[in-house]
Every structure is written in C-alpha cells, then in structure tokens.
Specification:
This protein is an alpha/beta fold. 46% of the residues lie in helices and 14% in strands. It is built from 15 helices and 12 strands. It is globular and about 95 Å long. 39% of the residues are buried. The mean pLDDT is 93.
Length: 441
C-alpha cells in the first residue's frame, strides 16, 4: 500500500512471496526522484490518517453476546464505552468481543492494566480458533502491552499507537475493532504529565483539555471510503475504570458525551455472578435507528418491536421489585407476579451468558431472536390464562420452566428445532389451561 503522501509511477516491484518488513518491495518514480517502499509506513500517531469521505453507519458489529446484539447493538465504525468499577468484568467483556466479534482485525491496547491480564491474552488467543478462517485467533490480533509499571509517557502514547495501527489496516479495506483497556489509565497518565508540566488543573486534577483529547480519540472511529477506493471501518471500544465505580467522575462523564453506545457494568450483577454484568436499565445504544434496516432484513421484521416489549417487562420488574421489598410478593395480583416470573426468565435464560460453555459463549443472531421470541410466547400464552382466572401456581410448569432456563445450553447453534418444539409445547399447555378455566366461568 502506497503511503497517502506519495504518488507516481511504479518503476520496479518484487514478485509475490515472503519478505521481511525492511525489504524494498516497490520502487516508485515520483517528481522528487525514486522512492523506495517497504512493508511499513512512517506516520505520526497523533495525526489521523486521511480518508476520501465518511460513510453512513449501516452494518452491525456482531458480537454473539445476546445482551449486546439484541438489546444494545454496536455498529462497525461506531464508538462504545464500557464503564464499570473494579471486578465488574470490563476486561472479560472486551476479551469476549475480541474473540467473537466479526471484525477482520482486533487491536487490543492494555493501557496501564495489570500484566497478568496481558499474559492471559497472550496465552489464550493462540489456542482459540477463529471460526471464519480456522486459524489461531492470534493471527488477526495485535497486542499493545503497556502495563501499569511502565512509564506514564508510554501509557499516554499507547492509545494513539493503537488507533493509528487500526487506521493503517482500515486503509487496506479491513474492518478493525480496537479495544482500549482502559481509557481511565490513559487519562491518569495525562493528569500526571500535566502536573509535571505545571499546567493549571481542572476537575479532580485532570487537565482542562481532557474532553478535547477524548473527543479527538473517539472521532478517529468511523466507516469510511479510503483514498484507494476501498471501504473500511474502525470501531472503538473503550473501557472506563471510574474509581469506586463512581460514574459521575470526569473521564466517564466526558466519554459519555462522545460515544454512541454505553454498556454500563453493574457491580451488584457482577457480585451475584450475572455475566456479562451489563445493566439493562442504565445502558443504551444510539445505533438502533441506523441498524434498523439491516436487522429487519437479515433477522426479522419485528425484531425491534420484540426488543421493546422485553425491555418494557424488565423496566416494569424494577418498579415491582421496589413494592415487593416493602410488602412482599404475595400481595401482588397474578398478572404482576407473572411479569416478575417472565423477567426472571429473561435475566437468567437470555441476558446471562456462560463464556466457558461451547454453545453459549457465542450465539448466532437467529438463535438469539428465536430464544427471545420463545420467552415472549410464554408470556403471552400465560398472560391470556391469567386473564381468565388461572392462578399463578398452576402456570409454573416445572418442565416448561426448566426447558426455558436451559435452552441456551440445550439448543445447538446450527439447529433450532428444539426451540420450535418448545414454542409449540408452551402454546398447547397454556392454551388447554385457558380453555379449561374459561369454560368453567
């Protein structure tokens, strides 16, 4: 690939083969004379590489994580923040995205993190097989190791190094996802350098230019047409580590201004072993309208309506749980108790995901949709039964509930017949209950 600042006529080129990066592979005749091109380019990392123009975001970044793909979808060329306190699973969430997202290349920046986390990536990724290429996952992964014991100047530069590498591969026509773990450590390095330069501190000691630096970094993401006519994208996924899990601190608040997807990690969920610990009440994605056409065409025309109905049940559950804390569940009417039961199924059977289970670590979009549809069929069928007077105790069928809770493990990722059979079983069982009580009335 010719550097963007050069143009001319190819005078000499080596045949296809294996060369090291210092080999001159092309000689380019320019107005200034003969330029020798090697298999790398010199580029100042703080300067964005040029593009022809930005394109509208329209393709999702498929992650295989149900809570993300169905509830808070990410986009190729988008920006994402994953904030969370210590132990909430930021690094593990980024590892899952690095392993299973459908990006062509992953750039993983360990900025000021513990050395054992980088060691884990180095040990795990060569053992994992990329499902698209059947080659080790390490073949498409770039690691920038900048651990917490390294100089602050290196920590501050590592973020820019990662995004420039991502832009370099984007210029070749690849879709690149960059994992920045974490931008809080980078901001702390900025603060330390700013203090040594005796600059005037702003909020919590961070320099006054912290927001503009964050904006410059996240704005380098995008889905673009490159100078050479190819299409590529850089998706930026930044972890934020607020001290004490306080989301009102400057790095989290300023990051929130510049990203379009916000996956808020909740320590209560993490400590109760609910992973990924993404809080469905405080997270959001601004890409739903941009990705609407793609999802409706490739998954289902009703997918966003289904998502809205399921999220509404989870919101209603959060309100009902406040009442339950005060007066107990027994005083609630059966239709509200059904909301609690259905929401529990959504949380455990759908939102909770096991990274160590072969069928559950990555889930195709079609299976995700069918799983959520099965839960809705259960809710609608049982709600009709409640309305004709079926008590909640009769609705809790042990076999059906067990099948719903275990469908994420028992349904293969390439055969959804089990889900379709379960849907038929639910409709039949609750239909008979409905008819029996309706006839008695």
């Amino acid at each position: 690939m010719v550097p963007p600042y050069l143009e001319g006529e190819v005078a000499e080129v080596l045949p296809s083969g294996n060369y090291n990066i210092e080999t001159t592979v092309v000689k380019l005749k320019t107005e200034k004379g003969l330029e020798e091109l090697k298999l790398y380019q010199h580029w100042p990392v703080r300067n964005p590489r040029p593009i022809k123009h930005r394109k509208t975001i329209f393709r999702p970044l498929i992650t295989g994580q149900r809570v993300i793909d169905m509830f808070f979808p990410l986009a190729k060329g988008g920006t994402v923040a994953i904030p969370g306190g210590f132990g909430t699973g930021k690094t593990m969430t980024q590892h899952q995205l690095a392993k299973w997202s459908d990006a062509d290349i992953i750039v993983y920046i360990g900025c000021g993190e513990r050395g054992n986390e980088m060691t884990e990536v180095l040990e795990d990724f060569p053992k994992l097989i990329d499902p698209k290429t059947n080659m080790p996952l390490m073949n498409r992964t770039i690691l920038i190791a900048n651990t917490s014991n390294m100089p602050v100047a290196a920590r501050e530069a590592s973020i820019y190094t990662g995004i420039t590498l991502a832009e370099y591969f984007r210029d070749m026509g690849y879709h690149v996802a960059i994992m920045a773990d974490s931008t809080s450590r980078w901001a702390e390095a900025l603060r330390e350098i700013s203090g040594r330069l005796e600059e005037m501190p702003a909020e919590e000691g961070y320099p006054a230019y912290l927001p503009s630096r964050l904006a410059e970094f996240y704005e380098r993401a995008g889905y673009v047409e490159n100078m050479n006519g190819t299409e590529g994208s850089v998706t930026v996924i930044g972890a934020v580590s607020p001290a004490g899990g306080d989301f009102s601190e400057p790095v989290t608040q300023n990051t929130k201004r510049f990203v379009s997807a916000f996956l808020s990690l909740d320590k209560k969920l993490a400590y109760s072993r609910h992973y990924p610990a993404i809080n469905w009440l405080s997270s959001y994605s601004g890409y739903i309208n941009l990705l609407k056409d793609w999802y409706e065409e490739n998954v289902s025309p009703e997918i966003w309506d289904l998502r809205g109905r399921m999220l509404k049940l989870l919101y209603e559950e959060s309100k009902l749980l406040e009442i339950v804390k005060l007066v107990g569940e027994d005083v609630l009417p059966d239709d509200q108790r059904l909301i609690l039961e259905t929401s529990k199924i959504i949380r455990i059977a759908f939102l909770q995901q096991n990274a160590y289970h072969a069928e559950d670590t990555f889930v195709p979009l079609e299976k995700q949709y069918k799983m959520l549809k099965t839960i809705e069929i259960f809710y609608e069928s049982s709600f009709k039964a409640v309305k004709v007077g079926v008590p909640i105790s009769h609705l809790i069928n042990k076999d059906i509930f067990e099948s719903l809770y275990k469908m994420k493990y028992n349904v293969p990722n390439d055969n959804y017949q089990v889900l379709e059979n379960l849907q038929d079983e639910i409709v039949e069982y609750y239909g008979k209950l409905h008819d029996k009580y309706a006839s008695e009335k």
